[in-house]
Amino acid sequence: MASFLKNNFSNYLWVTLFTIGIFFIFYLFLYRVPLDERNLLKNTKYTLAIVTSDWHYKDDSGVGVDYEYFINDKYYYKTSNIRVRKGEKYIIVYDSLNPNTHCLLNNYELSDTIIPPKNGWKYNEVPIPIDSAYIRNIIR
C-alpha cells in the first residue's frame, strides 16, 4: 500500500511540474511579445532605414531583404520579409530604450536628401507626415 501511494504521489508530482512548465512556456510566448510592443509604443522614436540587399531566399540572416539603421553611433542590421528594393529608404519606428525592438514602415519612403539626427526623431519632428493610428495598428 505504501508503495502504491509513493508511486501515485510521484506521478502526480511529475504531472503537476509538467503542467506548470507548459503554462510557463505559454506565458513567455504570449506575454513577452506584447511587453515589447507596449515599450515600443511608450518609448517611440523614428529614424531612417536603408535597404541594403535584394530579396534573398537563403541567407544567414533569413528570408527577405536586409536593411540597416543607425542610432546613437551604432548600426543595427536586420532582415524583413517585405517587398522593397535595394537602396530605398524608409522610416523605422523603434523603442528608444531598446533599438532592437523596431518596425520598418515600408509605406513611408524617404528621399535621399533627408538625414535623420543620430538619436532619431520624435513623432512631431519626422520630416514627412505620418499617421500615428496606422503605426499603432501595424505594431499591434
Number of helices: 2
Total strand count, please? 5
Task: Tell the overall outline.
Answer: elongated
Q: How many domains, as an integer?
A: 2
Quaternary state of the chains: single chain
Q: Give the strand order, joined by hyphens, for the main sheet.
A: 3-2-1-4-5
Tell me about this structure.
This protein is an alpha+beta fold. The chain folds into two domains: 1-32; 37-139, no CATH class. It is built from two helices and five strands; from the N terminus they run αβββββα. A five-stranded antiparallel β-sheet has the order 3-2-1-4-5. The longest helix has 41 residues, at 2-42. The chain starts with a helix and ends with a helix. The model has no long low-confidence stretch (mean pLDDT 84).
Q: What's a concise summary of this model?
A:
By secondary structure, this protein is of the alpha+beta class.
Features:
five-stranded antiparallel sheet, 30% strand, elongated, 140 residues, 2 helices, 2 domains, alpha+beta, single chain
